[in-house]
Write a structure and sequence with these properties.
The chain is mainly α. The longest helix is centred in the first third of the chain and has 21 residues. The chain is 83% helix and 0% strand. Among the domains are: 81 residues, Serine Threonine Protein Phosphatase 5, Tetratricopeptide repeat (Alpha Horseshoe); 126 residues, Tetratricopeptide repeat domain (Serine Threonine Protein Phosphatase 5, Tetratricopeptide repeat, Alpha Horseshoe), CATH 1.25.40.
């Protein structure tokens, strides 16, 4: 694409973004519509302008997705993809368009189409030079969640493992995104009854989050809680109890934004204690957590 056209598209994207930040979505849409109309006219007169037309459609598609007009956004993304079909030199842009189309299908509840679009986006990103590996990992993680929601445990596991392998290679084991995928895979294993594997994944996530965030962090507390649940499944109740306590300790200084996480940990811990017959201690834990929440109010 000519540098002058690229600069105009960048300016358009920035202008539309600024209007959205201001909350002026109607003006943002007017600007985007005018740009699409001009780009379409230019494209009909000049076959080499299809790339610019596709880029402007992408800008409008992003805006429409932001405002919840998913069907219209879908149409813009599909039209842009068609304009760039057969352009291996534009792998990154095509990958981005397929990824955005997948997100729209996900919002519309079209799970199979979302998976297909995200898979095509991954193929595009893998063909880029150099490959956009982290984008591939992010999409593989997204696909895993959709497959998990449909009960495809094996498919979800394979997609999470692909994401984890890339994250581990590109970012290292002690990174928050690597830890997040470990946590996601651990949740899948725990839900599916693979308790030893769930424990291992949650242990990896906890180790990474302690190094990245420290002890007093919501994500660290989440990993303590998740590991505790896995430990209960493997029969290590004493260690599970210590991890529940560590989860509460981790959240105590986090403030009101941690209320939901603290309530979730409370419910898990109290359920275990009462099933174990420790009603008195469960009441003490419940009182402590209530005092923490009151202090935050």
């Amino acid at each position: 694409m000519e540098s002058s056209k690229l600069n105009l598209i960048t300016m358009l994207r920035d202008h539309v973004g600024e209007l959205c930040i201001e909350g002026n979505f109607s003006e943002a849409l007017r600007v985007a519509n005018a740009a699409v109309e001009k780009a379409e006219k230019d494209s009909s007169n000049d076959g080499d302008s299809s790339e610019a037309f596709a880029s402007v459609l992408e800008v409008r598609g992003d805006l429409l997705r932001t405002t919840g007009e998913y069907e219209k956004a879908r149409d813009d993304y599909q039209k842009a993809i068609k304009l760039l079909d057969g352009r291996p030199d534009l792998c990154i842009q095509l990958g981005r368009l397929h990824a955005d189309l997948g997100a729209v299908h996900d919002e519309l509840g079209n799970l199979d189409q979302a998976i297909d679009s995200w898979t095509e986006a991954m193929n595009c990103f893998e063909k880029a030079d150099p490959p956009a590996s982290l984008d591939v990992a992010s999409l593989s993680n997204n696909i895993a969640f959709l497959k998990k929601s449909t009960g495809d445990v094996d498919g979800a596991e394979n997609s999470f493992l692909k994401a984890l392998e890339i994250m581990h290679r590109e970012l290292g084991p002690n990174h928050d995104e690597t830890a997040s995928v470990c946590n996601n895979l651990g949740a899948l294993y725990l839900q599916s009854g693979y308790n030893e594997q769930a424990r291992d994944m949650h242990l990896m996530a906890l180790d990474a989050r302690r190094k990245v965030f420290g002890e007093q962090h919501i994500d660290t507390a989440q990993s303590y809680n998740n590991l505790a649940l896995a430990l209960l499944r493997t029969g290590d109740e004493a260690t599970a109890k210590r991890h529940f306590e560590s989860a509460i300790d981790a959240l105590e200084s986090c403030g009101p934004e941690a209320v939901e996480e603290l309530e979730s940990i409370r419910d898990n811990y109290l359920d275990y204690l009462r099933r174990d017959g420790a009603e008195g201690y469960a009441n003490l834990v419940e009182q402590r957590i209530s005092e923490i929440i009151v202090k935050w109010e």
